[in-house]
């Protein structure tokens, strides 16, 4: 039901969903809004609908979510593929499965295995992994053979939990300038290698 409604509201608010995982107590999405406020409108409508659905289905009342959703701006292809892997490895890190292919509620099924998921739209970086869909899927699966470094995991977690920008120092400065912020969006530090090393 959640994925069905996510697809509906993503289409309605013009948001492309590239990666997702449904966990028992949270959801991760990698998405690109095509219009201003598209992401926030999608999440607002989805949250309202799903709370009503769960409350009615299980005879409960009240809120379902602990707080509002968190969003992080992600820079370029290198970072997007790392975030996609991070999202799809969530059930493995949680000890629910040994491999992301064993978890049915994830975009790994589309990205790596070619399962038709209407909600899913490939990242531009994903399309660059090969000339054919078979090559793209194979190259994507190979990304999962390389473990994340502790630095990469820490950088993604820090950015997502703090709702900061995830990207190069140049990208962060560019965003700071555009938003005319007086202080940095994310602390400056040496950039990890997002190829998985």
From TrEMBL:
Question: Which PANTHER family does this one have?
Answer: TRANSPOSASE IS200-LIKE DOMAIN-CONTAINING PROTEIN, TRANSPOSASE, Y1_TNP DOMAIN-CONTAINING
Protein name in the entry: Transposase IS200-like domain-containing protein
- One Pfam annotation reads Y1_Tnp
Q: Which InterPro entries match?
A: Transposase_17, Transposase_17_sf
- Which SMART domains did the record assign? Y1_Tnp (SM01321)
Annotated ranges, domain Transposase IS200-like: 1-90
């Amino acid at each position: 039901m959640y994925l069905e409604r996510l697809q509906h509201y993503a289409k309605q608010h013009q948001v492309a969903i590239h990666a997702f995982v449904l966990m028992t107590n949270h959801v991760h999405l990698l998405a690109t809004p095509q219009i201003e406020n598209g992401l926030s409108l999608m999440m607002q409508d989805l949250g309202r609908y799903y709370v009503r659905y769960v409350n009615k289905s299980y005879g409960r009342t009240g809120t379902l979510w602990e707080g509002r959703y968190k969003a992080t701006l992600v820079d370029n292809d290198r970072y997007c593929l790392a975030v996609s892997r991070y999202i799809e490895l969530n059930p493995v890190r949680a000890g629910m499965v040994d491999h992301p292919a064993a978890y049915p509620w994830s975009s790994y099924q589309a990205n790596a295995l070619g399962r038709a998921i209407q909600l899913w739209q490939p990242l531009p970086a994903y399309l660059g992994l090969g000339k054919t869909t078979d090559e793209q899927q194979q190259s994507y699966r190979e990304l999962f053979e390389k473990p994340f470094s502790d630095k990469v995991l820490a950088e993604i977690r820090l950015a997502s939990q703090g709702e900061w920008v995830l990207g190069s120092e140049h990208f962060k400065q560019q965003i700071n300038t555009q938003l005319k912020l007086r202080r940095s969006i994310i602390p400056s530090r040496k950039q990890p290698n997002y190829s998985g090393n």
